[in-house]
Write a structure and sequence with these properties.
- The model is unreliable at 1-36 (pLDDT under 50).
- This protein is of the alpha/beta class and 262 residues long.
- The protein is elongated.
- It has a five-stranded mixed sheet. A five-stranded mixed sheet has the order 7-6-8-5-9.
- The chain has helices spanning 6-25, 34-38, 51-64, 77-85, 98-106, 137-142, 155-167, 180-188, 199-205, 235-246, 248-256; strands at residues 41-47, 69-75, 92-94, 115-120, 122-126, 147-150, 175-177, 194-198, 210-212, 222-228.
- This is Molybdate ABC transporter substrate-binding protein.
Length: 262
């Protein structure tokens, strides 16, 4: 015999079950914005001369943002800009000059205005002991030294050309490289008597090379702009990385590597 009130209890139980199922099926999906970005992979295209400080900054940023990963694509700024214009996916772009950043801006690939994070200038790198006896820029032009420079399309090459024009001298390089890393490699390997590289590269190379001062480089200071790219899927994380680089700690890391203040 059925107990009184059992049908009512059954009905209430059924309603509760249905409401529970509805709540589960309509519950919130994956978190958006910062929560989603926090565990994302950030792709940063950065000028080759930024290798040392950006490697350190990427490591520190990952530690400050658990679950995030920063992938660095380091190359000449001209090559990086060309890759971006060809459709390469990236979140952040740091160039070694404003001319290559302008290409990205003209291609409508930047989200907002770039900000300058550092400055740099060229100097002369020679093998230890300075076998060719290089004393300054004039020696590079007049003493028939085997000199390596960056191609003029690359920021370090454009800067070298500006120095030539300011000094009224013309170099006859034995090789023109696509990045300052290539120039430094030629000097370190002994394939060149001297090379025009950034002061930051001299510091990073340690005792592998020797520096000969280049006062004329004051005529061609490179400014390094940084920007989030319009195609980024991780906008909050990209913006956080840019703030990190621009912070007091980020600036200290850049200046420890030899970069000048913005």
């Amino acid at each position: 015999m059925r107990q009184p009130g059992s049908s009512g209890a059954l009905f209430v139980s059924l309603v509760v079950s249905l409401l529970t199922l509805a709540a589960c099926s309509n519950g919130p999906g994956p978190q958006q914005g910062g929560t989603q970005d926090a565990g994302a992979e950030l792709t940063v295209f950065a000028a080759a001369s930024l290798k040392e400080p950006f490697t350190e900054l990427a490591r520190d940023f990952e530690a400050a943002n658990p679950g995030s990963t920063v992938r660095l694509n380091l190359a000449g700024s001209t090559d990086l800009a060309a890759q971006l214009l060809a459709g390469a996916p990236a979140d952040v772009f740091a160039a070694a000059d404003e001319a290559n950043m302008a290409k990205v801006l003209q291609g409508s690939l930047a989200a907002g205005e770039p900000q300058v994070i550092a400055t740099n200038q060229l100097t002369i790198a020679v093998p230890p002991g300075n076998p060719a006896g290089i004393t300054g820029f004039r020696d590079l032009a007049e003493n028939r030294a085997q000199v390596v420079v960056c191609a003029v399309q690359v920021p370090c090459g454009a800067a070298a050309q500006q120095i030539e024009q300011a000094a009224g001298l013309v170099l006859s390089p034995v090789s023109e490289e696509s990045s300052v890393t290539g120039v430094m490699g030629k000097v370190i390997s002994g394939e060149a008597d001297a090379g025009l590289v950034y002061v930051t590269d001299i510091r990073a190379a340690g005792d592998k090379v020797q520096e000969v001062p280049l006062p004329e480089a004051r005529e061609a200071v490179n400014r390094y702009p940084l920007v989030r790219l319009a195609g980024s899927d991780n906008t909050q994380l990209a913006d956080a990385f840019i703030r990190f680089v621009s912070s007091a700690n980020g600036q200290a890391t850049l200046q420890e590597a030899g970069f000048g203040a913005p």
